[in-house]
Amino acid sequence: MAETMDQHKRTEATQAAICSRGVTRDFKAGQQTITVLHGIDVDIRAGELTYVVGESGSGKTTLISIMCGILWPTEGEVKVFGTDIYDLSDTELVEFRLNNIGFIFQQYNLIPSIDAANNAAVPLIAQGMDRLEAREKAVAMLEKLNIGDQADKLPSQLSGGQQQRVAIARALVHEPRLVVCDEPTAALDAASGRKVMDLLREVAVAEDRACIIVTHDNRVFDLADRILVLEDGRITHDGAEMPEGH
Amino acid sequence: MIWIAIRMLTGDAQKFYGLVFGIAFSTLLITQQLTIFVNLIERGASGTYNVSSADVWVMDPVSRTTDVNFPMPSTALDKVRSVEGVEWAVPHLRAGASVRTGEGDLEGVSVIGVDDATLIGLPKRMVEGSADVLSQPDSVIIDDVGVTRMFEDGTSPIGERLELNDQRAIIRGIADAIPSFTSQVTLYTKYSQALRYVPGTRNRLSFVLVGAEHGISPQDLTRRIEQQTGLRARTRDEFAQDGVDFIIQNTGIPLNFGITVMLGFIVGVAIVGLTFSLFIRDNIKQFGALKAIGVTNGKIRRMVAAQAGLVGLIGYGLGVLGTVLFIWGFSGNPTFKGFYIPWQIPLISMAAVFVILALTGWLALRNVLKTEPASVFR
């Protein structure tokens, strides 16, 4: 019976966008070893807007860093669309990220000296696409995000909300299957924050695409399809709404 | 990605210009100082190169350069003439003297006595007048650098009377000569006249200038002369090199210029290193984001190399151009007469720029490569 359950879990896992099993992460602090994640087992499904929420230091950033292949777990395995990403070589992993994952950073991290279209085109240029062709695609993505008219502007000439849209365009321009966002509404007011979340739902969530968002912005909790609550490196809640008391 | 790297750098105008300035200044200092150094020490060979017709210089065994010589007895000339393979041999005198100018100033000069009959020993070209003027009584020919030193107001020296070691001398021509290391005024006159101007010891013959017979190499001839006369004989190129070596061995010039060149290198490393590190530090988040997105370390390396290459190319070009303008701008100044940039020097400064950029680029790159992609989420 237990074997059948395991098999069922494995089948489910292969269908999930992200499947993490027994993910543990330790950090050294002097002579002490601090365990930030304690054997996390979780599946992130495609077609859902998934929030990872929790207090500062609960391990949410560490968890998504491991899920998107930029931080090695101490133990456990992570499969992204069926690929065990930590079984890949360094070069393969970098290439996997380039082709399958889009990133939206809290501080956007746009390159200040190139315009919005070229910023959005960075993943395509990194993939080796001709710069002008990449720019065309990026402009089309910016138009989809309603800032096509800002394509020629430098990041410093854009508002915070517009910079966020450029960052979203950069995350989506190469059509990744997984979009990872770190506090995308932290620097925005409530209305702009909701607009960004609506936008992410519209453009980043699809049947074959997963979107995972780290946030502690309770103004947008109601927009999630699924909320994972992390406390002290453990998932203490997994549901469509925030548990009472949070 | 190279285009992005270049735009990242040029978009930060302050740091871009700072880096270009650092490389340009370093290149200028290294190229210009090395150029002056090489040209200056080559002046040690000017006495030899001014007498282009002599294949071999014969001298007392203790003589070292055209200016550091020990006079020989006049019989040395006959000894040399008797050596097989010598086509011609003429006396040559070089000595110091004092001149009182028309204004009453005292000037130390170098007196060169050239062969009375053939005038071998004179520079090849004349700026004014001809070599024949030496046949007139009390005639001297002054070198062009000497004119600028003794006649600063621009008056023509032709016909000017000088009191040369208490005797009358009249300037009747101007020679186009390579200045000496000290840029001392040089007066050319006939050998017999020079003996009168420069009284001294029993032996007065400074050098015997020799022409080799057709088919005899100067090297062979020097060996023969040394074997048969007991005197020291050097080919023109060997003796020119002796003059250069003398300056290198007996002056602090190589050390002083070496220190300046080293300072140029250090200043380059300091300015470029600091600015490059600041640039990388300011952009570390962007580099981190690129790494997270999926830009490999190899591509990051190429990006930083492209940035360093652009700065190096522009900075080096400006530095070398600055040196060319400097040499061109001062070409009218007698101190810099005949100065040129040997082709090896731009190559040396290019190598120095490469080392500066490789070193500072590597230091800056270490920070980027050490940056964990995960740091962008912190």
Describe the secondary structure blueprint for this structure.
The complex is a heterodimer of chains A (246) and B (378).
Chain A: H1 2-15, E1 18-29, E2 32-44, E3 49-54, H2 60-67, E4 75-80, E5 83-84, H3 90-100, E6 101-104, H4 116-120, H5 122-127, H6 131-144, H7 160-172, E7 178-182, H8 190-204, E8 210-214, E9 226-231, E10 234-239
Chain B: H1 2-11, H2 13-42, H3 46-49, E1 56-59, H4 75-81, E2 86-100, E3 106-114, E4 125-128, E5 139-143, H5 144-150, E6 161-164, E7 167-176, E8 185-190, H6 191-197, E9 207-212, H7 218-229, E10 232-235, H8 236-250, H9 253-282, H10 284-293, H11 297-329, H12 344-370
Parallel strand pairs in B: 3-8, 5-7
Antiparallel strand pairs in B: 1-9, 1-10, 2-3, 2-6, 2-9, 4-7, 5-8, 6-7
Helix pairs in contact in B: 1-11, 2-9, 2-11, 2-12, 9-12, 11-12
Radius of gyration of chain B: 29 Å
% residues in beta strands of chain B: 15-25%
Name the chain pair whose interface involves the most residues: A-B, 33 and 27 residues
What would you give as the CATH superfamily of the domain at 46-74 and 82-111 and 177-239 in chain A? P-loop containing nucleotide triphosphate hydrolases
Helix content class of chain B: 40-55%
Spans of chain A of at least 5 consecutive residues whose pLDDT stays below 50 are 1-14
What is the mean pLDDT of chain A? 83
Class based on secondary structure composition and strand pairing of chain B = alpha+beta
Instruction: Give the H and E element order of chain A.
Output: HEEEHEEHEHHHHEHEEE
What's the end-to-end separation of chain A, in Å?
37 Å
**Which oligomeric state applies?**
heterodimer
Number of strands of chain B: 10
Reported by name, the CATH topology of the domain at 46-74 and 82-111 and 177-239 in chain A is: Rossmann fold
> What is the 3D shape of chain B?
elongated
Sheet with most strands of chain B: 6 strands, mixed, barrel
| Order of the strands making up the biggest sheet of chain B | 2-3-8-5-7-6
**Fraction of residues in β-strands of chain A:** 25-35%
Count of alpha and pi helical runs of chain A? 8
Helix content of chain A: 25-40%
